[in-house]
Amino acid sequence: MRIDEAQWLVQSFMRAHGENLSPGLNPQGFGGAAVGDAQIYFEFVPKTGELKCSALIYRFRDAPRPGVLEGFRDEEKAGTDTGGGAVDFEQESKSLFLSRTYTAAPPDKASFTEDMNRLMGASLAWGEGVFDRVATKVNAAAKK
Asked: Are residues 53 and 119 in contact, defined by beta-carbon separation less than 8 angstroms?
């Protein structure tokens, strides 16, 4: 994917959510938006031509407790709806996301917007019900 294609996709997504003046991606290839209760971030990687799209599940204050990340990965393996993404922990920001990477632009902007809406919806579900399930399991294991 080329930067202009990634820019077009992100700008189209932003316009679909009322952000008509959004530049999409900044000169460093990053962008993001808060859409309702969801937060979504975009990163274009020029070297590989990839557009990484990440919907926030949870931002930790400190490093996650042992077993937490594994619990989320277990939920993904068990088939919990990820909205087309995959569990992704960013060490630097201590943030947990559902992320989806595009190596080629989808055929139309509507399908990209639909994909991002599914990803954000899943991230909200993971931030509530799935998070509670994982926390309960991790806490129970720690008490043993």
From this structure: yes
